[in-house]
Amino acid sequence: MKTIYFSIFMLLAFVSSAFCQEPTPQSSEMLDMKLQLLNSKLDLLDTKIKLWESKPKELDLRLSELDSKIKQIDFDPAEVLKRLNELDSIVKLLPDRPVAGTPEQQIIQRSEPVEASFNPSYNSAIMLDPARLPEGTFSLSYERIIDHRFSVNLTGMATYSTERGISNRYFSNQKFSMYNSALDRYDSYDGEVMSGGGFNLQFRNYLLANHPGKRTAPFGLYAAPQFMYRLMKIKGYYSTYEPETNQYENYEMVKNEVHQHLRILAGGVILGIKIPVMKVLAVDFFAGGNIRLAKYKDEDGFT
Length: 303
Fold this sequence. Notes:
Blueprint: H1 2-20, H2 25-72, H3 77-93, H4 103-109, E1 124-128, E2 137-145, E3 150-161, H5 168-172, E4 176-180, E5 185-206, E6 220-244, E7 247-276, E8 282-296
Antiparallel strand pairs: 1-2, 2-3, 3-5, 4-5, 5-6, 6-7, 7-8
Helix pairs in contact: 1-2
């Protein structure tokens, strides 16, 4: 600012000295040019002064906006300091633990390799019950996993049993009888074929699934309530002596066919364990008890 005023002063002194001299055409032209230059400098000075005057106003406006934004923020330094002190006291009470992330500590904390075991996560399983084959029953089960602990098992059974074949021993030990309403008693007869079908429904609960390191469904120890329904058709015959035609003195043995329909209902609880043997095979051992009711179609009560 002092430099500008000093320049103006020197310029005015030069102009006054020029007026004191005798004017010439060249000096007049020079004087006009200097006056124009002086006028331009004055305009420039006026512009700079106005610019300097506007800067403080703009700065005040910015500061007021910043102040209003700070006031809008819900910020209490004393409360934040209090929270930080509480956090610091909690951290001091915690036991010293190694900082995770460094390669050395990761190697130290690495768990020992778990012994390799076959425990795949299957959603379903299909099983064959070979224990029912000697009775002439083909039993095929489908188990569907609900979660890591529960599953539903549905078994379909188809039976065809005779005195011949794999079911010979089972069929020969059966005792067949039918109710004789005339004499109010049961009469025995010889069976020929026993056939039919049914289903068995189980809701399995794998008891050790929640324990660490134990097998989850569909493998491991389980308990299950079950319900069974079967419909059996029995074909047989019984022999009677009947007189020959028009000859009452002579009798002949006549075979009479018997057809019975037997409904079987059973309900109970089993306890078992399913153990994997190979990648696609498993063995299921189970034992339990049932309450079973059987009723023939043409009879009122249970057998």
